[in-house]
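Hey, can you fold this one?
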Amino acid sequence: MSAVLPAQSNEIISTNPATGEEIGRVAMTTPEEVAAAFDRARETFAKWKDTSFDKRKRLVMAAREVILAEMDDIAELISRESGKPVAEALSMEIAPVLDLMQYFARNAEKLLKPKRVGIGLYSLLGRSSKIIYKPYGVVGIIPAWNYPFSIPLGEAVMALMAGNTVVIKPSELTPFIGLKIGEIFVKAGFPANCVQIVSGAGETGAALVDSAPDKIMFTGSVATGKRIAAAAAKNLTSTVLELGGKDPMIVFEDANLELAAGAAVWGAFCNAGQSCSSVERLYVHESIADELTKRIVEKTNQLKVGSGLEADTSVGAMSSERQLKTVYEHVEAFKDAGAEVLTGGEVIVPGFNEPTEKVEMASGFFYPPTVIKGATNDMMPMQEETFGPTLPIATFRTEDEAINLANDSEFGLTASVWTKDYTKGRRVAEQIEAGSVCVNEVLYTHGIGQTPWGGFKNSGRGRTHGALGLMELVQPQHIHVNRIAILPDAWWMPYSETAVATFRKFATHFASGSLLKTNLMLPQLFKRVRELMKRK
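Sure. Predicted structure:
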């Protein structure tokens, strides 16, 4: 790999994971500067929260035009800094976030429209209630490195459309993509400090949390998510945590095997397997396991591994040596446990296409797409998140067994079910413990900004995207009005024997929800009101 000068204590070095070449250096934001950024964000929020939805829409759509004008340059930057193919930078980052932007620009006002609340028989007393939605304030966003453009940009757009201001701490592995996001909002004409970028590693992220944002959106590991939640609790900061995944794919004997094989290959190997929703466990009915596995291996062997800047590259570099080592260790663990590697399984040295014995010898963080046969849930890599281009295959006999195998995990982000029997597909999907379950689809629903995204169990808390994700970025406020405020309320003080008798009627008649029973208590209610009026 190309030589890189050591980083200074106040800078981040961005390198191309495919070559090791230095892309550039970014100054680290100090904790004091992070705190100052939040001060500016709060000042800007005081004005931004009162802007019209129409103005927010125009600015977001202007940001969208900036991206369209610079789309190829942005795709190249994403590829160079993250290692993913340009094809995936376009299809899995830029296109989805452009769709999200137009959707929330056009629909946020409708989604956040005040909603009348039915209050039952209280409405007969002249009362009415509604919910209005208020922005939180300053939203701190700490995204992961695997989708460094679409995740923070999409969350920022949703926060802005809800009336918040934003501070983003990009991953230290992709700092220039973070700066590009900030630049996009500036070019679009957003007010100064509506969106700010603070660059750095763990210390900068900790400073962001310590600055007491009004909301934190975090994407990353379970371990880091727990630390952020604990630190945020000191200020009672609300969090949305999108953590890991170990996502199962279930293929029944009646599935379209050609489609299932193609889906498994794409679901496991796109973004070099570095997606929280990657297929990391494939469960196949034993009667079709050999045939499906054969097709998967054939398709896998057609994939080109190499520089993401080449148009025909399907599997690019992994993002870091650390992640490469994790994949290496998991594949070795599968081998040691008795599973069989059918293709791949060794670190690639670019330019030679020969395996090496040790991961440290690799020039560029490449690992070939690897298909593994004979996996079982008691093997360590079937429980821990791999986050790399591996596809372990296990078999099942019955529907119940498939469901139990899929649910045998601490994670529950996404899953997929493959069958021509849609009744069975929906039935199985509803029994899987995951935030999103697809029938005859895999992985890509994060790209549908209109649908909620989030998981069960250790895959996180809260939702991003969709109406539910937008609601994470506002605080509901209940407004209650008494339109006939001319008489005292029967439940006011001072209490008396008449009051107690009236309250019994409230419990037995009014609280029944029955209009007929409520009418029967009206004499007692009027008696109580007259009593209160006499005590003026």
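The two ends are 88 Å apart (CA to CA). Let me know if you want another pass with a different chain boundary.
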